[in-house]
Amino acid sequence: FGRAGRPGFDTSGEGVIVTEHKKLAHYLALLTHSTPIESQFISNLADNLNAEVVLGTVTNVREGAQWLGYTYLHVRMTQNPLVYGLTWDDVRADPGLLEHRRKLVREAARTLDRAKMVRFDERSGQLYQTEAGRIASHFYIRRASMEIFDEHLRRHMTMPEVLHMVSHSSEFENISPREDEMPELEALQRDRKRACPIEIKGMLGDKASKVNLLMQVYISRARMESFSLMS
After folding, report:
1. How far is CA 180 from the centre of its chain?
2. Which residues of 22-43 are buried (b: 16+ CB within 10 A; e: fewer)?
3. Is residue 217 within 8 Å of residue 181, measured between CB atoms?
4. Dihedrals φ, ψ of 153, to 5°?
5. How far apart (Å, rounded) are the C-alpha atoms in residues 128 and 124?
6. Is residue 106 packed enough to be buried (19+ CB in 10 Å), middle (13-18) or exposed (0-12)?
7. Quick one: which of 22, 66, 130, 146 has the most CB atoms within 10 Å?
8. How far is CA 41 from the centre of its chain?
9. How many Å apart are CA 76 and CA 105, to the nearest integer?
10. How is the chain classified by DSSP, letter by letter?
11. Are 159 and 198 in contact (CB under 8 A)?
């Protein structure tokens, strides 16, 4: 769930969970520890490793494996290895799971190398930061988005091309068209002077088209009425 309160400043904190009634039993089970909370860190390992490389705290696979040993992922892998594709024999053979941690770091490093966010020397295990990696870390851009930018970014691009590229960023994956928003979105798209000066390729039912329109509306400082659009 996370921590409520500021470390070093607060001795206690309060957290509020707002959810649907049908999910109440699930959260009660988590809060009463009858259901263990597993780590989801592997799915974001590459982005977090890049941040450590940019900071300079991880410069090679050995340091990456040591850093991974401080995470909640490592705790859960040793206590419930089956969830993470390991067996109890793996834990007995390597109690600290050092080799598995090195394997995870190597895989994440190769992923970052393909995205040109780091340079990974397979032979020495060294990790070198790149300009793309620094940009991603400083501005919290996901690896998936950096791959999209690397594929489509060119030296000379028009504003419609830039908006089209950015609208496909993975950061917007949770934004989806809603039927009740369509009338207002269509009205905003037609307002070429105050809301949407640049033509959008595709239908508004497409996720990227909605993101493109919302970016233009935000830049144009146009007014929106729907609460879901404003939020």
Report:
1. 28
2. eeeeeeeeeeeeeeeeebebee
3. no
4. -70, 130
5. 12
6. middle
7. 146
8. 11
9. 17
10. ----S-TTT-S---------GGGHHHHHHHHTTSS-----GGGGHHHHHHHHHHHTS--BHHHHHHHHTTSHHHHHHHH-GGGGT--HHHHHHSTT-HHHHHHHHHHHHHHHHHTTSEEE-TTT-BEEE-HHHHHHHHTT--HHHHHHHHHH--SS--HHHHHHHHTT-GGGTT----GGGHHHHHHHHH-TTTT--S---S-TTSHHHHHHHHHHHHHHT-----HHHH-
11. yes
Question: Are 165 and 208 a contacting pair, CB within 8 Å?
Answer: no
124-183 per-position pLDDT tens digit: 999 999 999 999 999 999 999 999 999 999 999 999 999 999 999 999 998 988 888 899
Query: d(Cα 135, Cα 54) in Å, to the nearest integer?
Result: 9
- Against a cut of 0.85, is the pTM above it? no
126 strand-pairing partners: 60
Give CA angle at 167 (220, 152), nearest 5°.
Answer: 120
Phi, psi of 155 (to 5 degrees): -60, -40
Residue 215, pLDDT score: 95
Helix axes 207-220, 159-166, angle to 10 degrees: 120
